[in-house]
Write a structure and sequence with these properties.
By secondary structure, the protein is an alpha+beta fold. The two termini are 27 Å apart. The longest helix is centred in the middle third of the chain and has 47 residues. It is built from 9 helices and 13 strands. It is 43% helix and 28% strand. A hairpin with a 4-residue loop joins strand 4 and strand 5. The chain folds into 3 domains: 112 residues, 2-Layer Sandwich (Beta-Lactamase); 76 residues; 164 residues, 2-Layer Sandwich (Heat Shock Protein 90).
């Protein structure tokens, strides 16, 4: 019994999805990594055909299983593309191993998701690019902001000396533009503030953002809340998290022209690489809209400073969001196509509860 418990503990901690199936390829067991991959609990999957867990091309998953059973030896298939019942596409390496048991010919299936490593490399590259851009921005912000006070003060003094109202209008333009530039620099610098670590209820944060957005857009916009009420609190900076999530939400609202439907969704995501380490569990926050989508050529650039799809956009909202989430040890993923855009934020719980701790 002790060795069986040890084996179960090892399986539960694996980042690889591990399943066992009976002689009719019905699921018997599934570890937590498998539950996360297929979006179904082991209890719900029990005795369901393996093919029922896959929406499209279930044959791609069944072929190595059938071959392993016929050859009576392990078979590995690389880069197997699967569309899961959650309508999510993944790429895995699949190893099927026949098992002779007292109940018959079973099969052990190991699924290792390889596209996750592509995401890791992509996120690292994005963070490196952002770090370089941030250093440039920090220097540029100081160079811009230092003379702004003198420029504004000179314009105010000049305005007092002018008697012609038409000329005063020009000084007001100078003051207004100086203030606008100062506010822009302040927004650039705001994400450089240190992070405080206190307990944060992400649902309270999202409810606050929903209230703010609906107060700004009083008709034509619907925000749906789809939350997992069992989630623990985060350790983080509430104000900065509000800013990050608000920036992303406003991006979605503007993309839809202030009309349409946005969904806030929270879930647990298991076995995630974030902040240069693997985490057993992280918080997944999704902000989803039904807008026109982000063009493919811009999707890798939207988090960089000064990149905007709108003529009147500053290109800083998503940059600041990226920096705040990164400082919390998390990552932002973007999935966009015409008619559907989804920002996925993955944030470590940093919890003392072993169920959620990394």
């Amino acid at each position: 019994m002790e060795s069986e418990q040890e084996a179960r503990t090892i399986l539960d901690r694996l980042n690889t999805a591990v399943l066992t199936c009976d002689d009719q390829i019905r699921v018997l067991t599934m570890n937590p990594a498998g539950e996360s991959m297929f979006g179904i609990s082991a209890k719900q999957a029990y005795h369901r055909p393996l093919s029922a867990l896959v929406l499209v091309e279930s044959g791609a998953l069944l072929r190595p299983v059938d071959k392993a059973r016929s050859m009576q030896q392990p078979v590995t298939a690389h880069d197997v593309s699967l569309t899961l019942s959650s309508d999510r596409s993944i790429t895995v390496d699949c190893t099927a191993t026949p098992l002779a048991t007292t109940q018959g010919e079973h099969v052990l299936i190991e699924l290792f998701q390889v596209d996750g490593f592509l995401d890791i490399a992509k996120n690292r590259y994005r963070e490196d690019q952002y770090d370089a851009s941030r250093d440039v921005l920090r220097g540029l912000a100081h160079e811009i902001k230092n003379p702004l006070g003198g420029l504004r003060g000179a314009a105010q003094l000049l305005e007092r000396e002018l008697s012609d109202r038409g000329n005063k209008e020009y000084t007001r333009i100078i003051i207004h533009e100086a203030d606008r530039l100062r506010n822009l620099v302040d927004r650039m610098m705001s994400s450089f503030n240190p992070v405080s670590h206190k307990s944060v209820n992400v649902h309270e944060v999202l409810a606050h953002i929903r209230k703010l957005i609906l107060a700004e857009i009083q008709e034509g916009l619907t925000i749906i809340q789809d939350y997992d009420p069992s989630l623990p609190e985060l350790r983080g900076d509430r104000d900065q998290l509000v800013q990050a999530l608000l920036n992303i939400t406003r991006n979605s609202v503007e993309a839809m022209g202030d009309r349409g439907e946005i969904t806030f969704r929270t879930r647990i995501e298991r076995s995630v690489y974030s902040g240069n380490r693997w985490h057993r569990c992280v918080l997944k926050v999704e902000i989803e809209d039904r807008g026109p989508g982000i063009p493919a050529h811009m999707q890798e650039r939207v988090f960089y400073p000064m990149v905007s799809g709108r003529a009147d956009g500053s290109g800083l909202g998503l940059t600041i969001a990226q920096d705040i989430i990164s400082k919390h040890g998390g990552t932002i993923q973007l999935h966009s196509e015409p008619g559907h855009t989804r920002f996925v934020l993955l944030l470590p719980f940093q919890s003392k509860d072993p169920q959620y701790a990394g």
